C-alpha cells in the first residue's frame, strides 16, 4: 500500500478529492505487560507500521467509510450509530465517533478511505491505531478541541464500550503521544509519562508467530477480573490498596493465604512486572542494555508461568532467539495467546537472527513467521492535502 494508492482509491470510490491524510502507528511494548489496567507502568514504542486514513468532510451527517484492505464500503448516519457485524472493522470508527458525541462534540459527516500495514490480530495494536487515526480525522475535520491525553482516553473508551475488550490505556496512549526513536515510559495511574531515548547499538526485532490468537477477549477480561479479585482479597490487610500497583511483592507473599493460588500467581506477575519496568527504565537511561535484556527474559517467564498468556509458539520464538549470538533479550509482547515477540538484537547480529530464527521456527511449528526490524516512529500525525 502506498499513500498515493489510498488517495486514488478515495477519489475513485467517493468521486471527489480527499482533504486530509492521517497516520497513526501500531506499537510494540518493550516491557510492562498486563500492568496498564492495574494502574502500573509500561514502556512501549511506536513502530513504523501504521493505519492511514484519507478523508474529506461532508455537509450532511453521513459517514461513508471504505476499507482498502477489506475491499468494503459501509455507510452510517452519525445521528444513529450502531454496531455493524458485517463490517467489524468499521465498529472502531463508529465507536470513536460515539465517544466524541458523548462529550458533546459535533462530528461532521465524512468520507473516509482506510488502509494499513499493521498486521491484524498479531498484538501490535492495529485496532488502537485505527481508533487513534479516526479520532485525529474527526478532530481535524470537525474542528474539535481536545488535548492528546483526552484523545487517547476517548479511544480507549471506544474500544471498551463499543468493541467490548476491557483494555488498558497503553496502546491508544502511545499511538497518540509516542515520539520517534524513543520509548514512552507511562505511569498508567496518573498518565504522567517520559520519553526515553532509544540510543543503543541494538535493534528492535519483531517476530510475528502467525499463530491466530484465540479466546483473546474472554481470557483478557478474565485476567483483569482475577487481578481485581486479588486486590479485594488483600483489602482486610491493605485497605488503601486500590490496585495491584499499590502492592509490593513482599506484601503479596505475606498475604498469599488470603486468596486462591491462581489469583496469587496472577498478582505476582503484575507486581514483579511493575518492578521490572522501573528497573528497565533505569538500565535504558544508563545504557546497560544487557540488564535490560535480562529483564525481558524474566518478563516472558512470568507471563508464561504466572499469568499464563503465552503459548507454545511464542515460547519457541523466545527460546530460539535466546540461542542466537547477539540476542540481548526476548519476550512475548501485547496481550498474548499468539501474536508477536519483541527482541533486542545487537545490530551486527540482526541479519543472522532474522534468517535463522525464521528457519528454525518454521521447521518446528510449520508456521512461516514474519521477522522484521522496526524503527521506533512518531505517534499520530495529519497533513492537509
Ligand atoms: C492489550 C491491551 C493493552 C494491554 C496489553 C497487555 O494490548 O489493549 O491495554 O493491557 O494488552 O499488556
Features:
4-stranded antiparallel sheet; 11 helices; single chain; binds alpha-D-galactopyranose; about 375 residues; alpha+beta
Write a concise synopsis of the structure shown.
42% of the residues lie in helices and 22% in strands.
User: Which small-molecule ligands are present, each listed once?
Assistant: alpha-D-galactopyranose
Total strands: 13
Shape verdict = globular
Radius of gyration: 21 Å
**Structural classification:** alpha+beta
Largest sheet: 6 strands, mixed
Residues in β-strands, percent: 15-25%
Strand order of the largest sheet: 5-4-6-3-1-13
CA(first)-CA(last) distance = 18 Å
**Low-pLDDT segments:** none
Tally the helices: what do you get? 11
Topology readout:
Layout: H1 3-14, E1 20-29, E2 41-42, E3 44-57, E4 62-67, E5 72-77, H2 90-102, E6 110-116, H3 126-142, H4 148-163, H5 170-177, E7 182-187, E8 193-197, E9 202-208, H6 216-234, H7 249-254, H8 261-286, H9 289-305, H10 312-322, E10 327-333, E11 340-346, H11 350-365, E12 370-374, E13 381-384
Parallel strand pairs: 4-6
Antiparallel strand pairs: 1-3, 1-13, 2-7, 3-6, 4-5, 7-8, 9-11, 9-12, 10-11
Helix pairs in contact: 2-3, 2-4, 3-4, 3-5, 4-5, 6-8, 8-9, 10-11
Bound molecules: alpha-D-galactopyranose.
Alpha-D-galactopyranose binds at residues 33-34, 36-37, 125, 167-168, 170-171, 334-335.
Q: Would you write up a description of this structure?
A:
This protein has 385 residues and is of the alpha+beta class. Helices cover 42% and strands 22% of the residues. The strands form three sheets. It has a six-stranded mixed beta sheet, sandwiched between helices. A four-stranded antiparallel beta sheet has the order 10-11-9-12. It has a three-stranded antiparallel beta sheet with strand order 2-7-8, sandwiched between helices. Strand 4 and strand 5 form a beta hairpin. Helix 3 (126-142) packs across helix 4 and helix 8 (261-286) packs antiparallel against helix 9. The radius of gyration is 21 Å and the shape is globular. The structure holds alpha-D-galactopyranose (GLA). Alpha-D-galactopyranose binds next to helix 5.
Amino acid at each position: 500500500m502506498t499513500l498515493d494508492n489510498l488517495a486514488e482509491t478515495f477519489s475513485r470510490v467517493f468521486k471527489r478529492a480527499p482533504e486530509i491524510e492521517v497516520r497513526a502507528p501500531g506499537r510494540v511494548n518493550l516491557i510492562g505487560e498486563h500492568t496498564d489496567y492495574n494502574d502500573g507502568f509500561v514502556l512501549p514504542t511506536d513502530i513504523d507500521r501504521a493505519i492511514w486514513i484519507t478523508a474529506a468532510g461532508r455537509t450532511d451527517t453521513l459517514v461513508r467509510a471504505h476499507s482498502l484492505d477489506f475491499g468494503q464500503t459501509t455507510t452510517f448516519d452519525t445521528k444513529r450509530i450502531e454496531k455493524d457485524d458485517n463490517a467489524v472493522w468499521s465498529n472502531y470508527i463508529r465507536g470513536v465517533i460515539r465517544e466524541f458525541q458523548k462529550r458533546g462534540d459535533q462530528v461532521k459527516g465524512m468520507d473516509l478511505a482506510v488502509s494499513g500495514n499493521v498486521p491484524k490480530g498479531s498484538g501490535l495494536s492495529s485496532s488502537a491505531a485505527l481508533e487513534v487515526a479516526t479520532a485525529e480525522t474527526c478532530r481535524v475535520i470537525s474542528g474539535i478541541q481536545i488535548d492528546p491525553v483526552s484523545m487517547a482516553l476517548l479511544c480507549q473508551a471506544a474500544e471498551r464500550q463499543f468493541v467490548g475488550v476491557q483494555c488498558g490505556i497503553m496502546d491508544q496512549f502511545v499511538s497518540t503521544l509516542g515520539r520517534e526513536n524513543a520509548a514512552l515510559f507511562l505511569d498508567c495511574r496518573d498518565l504522567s509519562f517520559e520519553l526515553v531515548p532509544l540510543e543503543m547499538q541494538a535493534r528492535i526485532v519483531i517476530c510475528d508467530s502467525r499463530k491466530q490468537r484465540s479466546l483473546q477477549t474472554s481470557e483478557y477480561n478474565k485476567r483483569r477480573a482475577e487481578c481485581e479479585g486479588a486486590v479485594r482479597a488483600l483489602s482486610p490487610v491493605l485497605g488503601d490498596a486500590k490496585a495491584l500497583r499499590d502492592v509490593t511483592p513482599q506484601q503479596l507473599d505475606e498475604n498469599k493465604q488470603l486468596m486462591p493460588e491462581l489469583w496469587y500467581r496472577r498478582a505476582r506477575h503484575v507486581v514483579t512486572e511493575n518492578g521490572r519496568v522501573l528497573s528497565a527504565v533505569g538500565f535504558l537511561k544508563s545504557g546497560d542494555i544487557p540488564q535490560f535484556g535480562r529483564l525481558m527474559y524474566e518478563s516472558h517467564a512470568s507471563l508464561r508461568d504466572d499469568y499464563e498468556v503465552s503459548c507454545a509458539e511464542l515460547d519457541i520464538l523466545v527460546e530460539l532467539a535466546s540461542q542466537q549470538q547477539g540476542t540481548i533479550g526476548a519476550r512475548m509482547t501485547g496481550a498474548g495467546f499468539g501474536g508477536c515477540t519483541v527482541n533486542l538484537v545487537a545490530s551486527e547480529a540482526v541479519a543472522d537472527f532474522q534468517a535463522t530464527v525464521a528457519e528454525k521456527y518454521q521447521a518446528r511449528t510449520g508456521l512461516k513467521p514474519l521477522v522484521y526490524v522496526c524503527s521506533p516512529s512518531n505517534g499520530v500525525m495529519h497533513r492537509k492535502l
